[in-house]
Design a protein that fits this description.
binds zinc ion, Metallo-beta-lactamase, Chain A
């Protein structure tokens, strides 16, 4: 397949239906065009989605709502990707129409309505990290998107990096933000971060807080964690990192978490290894496995750092893969 840059195309209603369970034609819009990254539009996707702060689409009967929690620009760093230079990284940004001035990380939380439950995957930053993030709380995005935070029944966590779990706890008191929800976490991730010898990242906060939470449930293996949601082992980015697959008929949604981190870097170049990966070789192996599965099953994937709409399909593209965003409303 040719490069994903500068491409916008419409697929047939039949193909759209097969992939997304939507009626009518569906345009897949390449994030970018000639847009520059700006604070409110870091990956060049439709500006309206950032202005609104959320995006909705369906996969079969599964209602998916993507909440945009904001961005975190960071200066280029030769160590950010172990086996790519800053020049190569910048070229990958320009190839999808982005400014190459900074690496713009962003946060998107996936919410699904499934079998009567409202399920959150990871929690957002809770307004506790960068000033440019925390929009879910600051802008009351759940309410705007039609989600009552008090009615979130389940929160399923991919891994324990601070940007994924800070929104579970209040900034000063660590009180639970979702005390009525069951919080489901990978046992191996819990075990790693609650080991007192681990001090990196959010470890100390995790050790002080999570063991006291009675509504946190650990799971092992690949059995459904709630009806309709199965874990996929994607260890590597963190020791116990997990992704999740949700099925509706023959359609699938895969919540990747950080399997691909930013799509324009690690989907296109699955062999690139992020310095932030705990085990970069394992992360790469599981990234390729998960992408191959997503290609074969025509699954829609969501990624936590994919910007907006933060969801799409994956296709083989030469030695790597291409990410094709879903059109959401
Ligand atoms: Zn992350």
């Amino acid at each position: 397949m040719q490069s994903i840059s500068k491409r916008q195309f419409v697929i047939s209603a039949a193909a759209a239906g097969a992939g997304f369970g939507l009626d009518g034609p569906l345009a897949f819009v390449q994030p970018a065009g000639a847009q520059k990254a700006t604070p409110s539009n870091p990956i060049g996707a439709p500006q309206a989605l950032y202005d609104k702060g959320f995006a909705k689409f369906k996969v079969g009967d599964i209602e998916v709502i993507q909440l945009f929690d904001g961005i975190a620009p960071r200066a280029h760093d030769p160590n950010f990707i172990k086996n790519a230079t800053v020049d190569e990284t910048k070229a990958a940004q320009r190839a999808v129409g982005l400014s190459d001035e900074n690496i713009v990380n962003s946060y998107t939380v996936t919410v699904v309505k499934l079998k009567g439950k409202t399920i959150l995957f990871d929690s957002g930053t809770g307004g506790q990290l960068q000033a440019t993030a925390g929009l879910i709380v600051k802008n009351d995005l759940m309410k705007k998107a039609g989600i009552d935070p008090a009615k979130i029944s389940t929160i399923i966590v991919t891994h324990f990096h601070g940007d994924h779990i800070s929104g579970l706890m209040a900034k000063d008191t660590n009180a639970q933000i979702f005390p009525n929800a069951e919080i489901i976490v990978p046992a191996s991730e819990y075990k790693y971060w609650t080991n007192p010898s681990v001090t990196a990242g959010a470890a100390k906060r995790i050790q002080a807080v999570f063991p006291g939470w009675k509504n946190m449930r650990q799971y092992e293996g690949d059995k459904e964690v709630v009806p309709g949601v199965k874990p996929i082992n994607t260890n590597g980015h963190s020791p116990g990192h997990m992704s999740y697959v949700l099925s509706s008929g023959r359609r699938q949604l895969i919540v990747l978490g950080d399997v691909a981190i930013m799509p324009y870097l690690f989907v296109k170049n699955p062999e690139w290894q992020a310095a932030s990966d705990a085990d970069a070789n394992l992360a790469e192996q599981n990234r390729r496995k998960t992408f191959d599965r997503a290609v074969a099953d025509k699954a829609v994937v969501t990624g936590y750092h994919f910007g907006m709409p933060g969801a799409g399909t994956i296709k083989k593209d030469g030695k790597g893969y291409a990410f094709v965003p879903v059109r959401a409303a």
